């Protein structure tokens, strides 16, 4: 990827997205910042132009609205300066599945998965054609853990992880790097927005530490970066177990334990 390629960041008005914006501006990249809150995007853009001398465009968009989403897709398809997509915009939702309104969970899935998917789909063919570029997708450790009791949010993040791993296999041979970043609890507004008390959590990573660690993984071209995972061997063990399971999938016959007993 060319050093000076522009970076388009969704959910850049606060938290992890705003921090990515500061870090990429610090590296000299021009930016395209996307979120709903135009006043916050304007303020951040002005700060980054002044502090780092980079060009910053903003796109006000609600990524759950198809017209807004289409405008961002068009920008990704047509603006050949954009070499990095940070698919970060997202929301969380607590509570049990039966208490969550159907329309609310659909909106969560639209933001956390459909928008992310459509933006990756908009930019990937152009990056593959150019033979360079990167897509960073923000997942969550919750996507590894149905036990956490956040079934829909976790499912969206499992989607992000799987999609990223699959796209990595497809796109790395074409010169395009794909990274899934899996944070755990990080101090941002997402908790309050979802109605959770941030002070009730025992431990929380600061957002600067999270993004700096994610960028170490980015610079190393890691496929899956889990900043709060302290022993990397655990991830390798999970992947090895998955490969072993796959090697025991034999398609021709059902496993013996499922064979009907002879009459
Ligand atoms: N903080 C944490 O503990 C963790 C966060 N993550 C993930 O990190 C990502 C960023 O979250 P975080 O920084 O923590 O939270 P924030 O709430 O601080 O940031 C969320 C960002 O997404 C934007 N956004 C929300 N809804 C929409 C929408 N409908 N259309 C466009 N933009 C939208 C918000 O901007 P605006 O309101 O202006 O639209 C904001 O910029 C999410 O994908 C989240 O799931 C993963 C694991 C842990
Ligand atoms: C932000 C969340 O709701 C969630 N706990 C997460 O860690 O992804």
UniProtKB/TrEMBL annotation:
<comment type="function">
    <text>NADP-dependent dehydrogenase with broad substrate specificity acting on 3-hydroxy acids. Catalyzes the NADP-dependent oxidation of L-allo-threonine to L-2-amino-3-keto-butyrate, which is spontaneously decarboxylated into aminoacetone. Also acts on D-threonine, L-serine, D-serine, D-3-hydroxyisobutyrate, L-3-hydroxyisobutyrate, D-glycerate and L-glycerate. Able to catalyze the reduction of the malonic semialdehyde to 3-hydroxypropionic acid.</text>
</comment>
<comment type="similarity">
    <text>Belongs to the short-chain dehydrogenases/reductases (SDR) family.</text>
</comment>
<keyword id="KW-0560">Oxidoreductase</keyword>
<protein>
    <recommendedName>
        <fullName>NADP-dependent 3-hydroxy acid dehydrogenase YdfG</fullName>
        <ecNumber>1.1.1.298</ecNumber>
        <ecNumber>1.1.1.381</ecNumber>
    </recommendedName>
</protein>
<dbReference type="GO" id="GO:0016491">
    <property type="term" value="F:oxidoreductase activity"/>
</dbReference>
<dbReference type="InterPro" id="IPR020904">
    <property type="entry name" value="Sc_DH/Rdtase_CS"/>
</dbReference>
<dbReference type="InterPro" id="IPR036291">
    <property type="entry name" value="NAD(P)-bd_dom_sf"/>
</dbReference>
<dbReference type="Pfam" id="PF00106">
    <property type="entry name" value="adh_short"/>
</dbReference>
<dbReference type="InterPro" id="IPR002347">
    <property type="entry name" value="SDR_fam"/>
</dbReference>
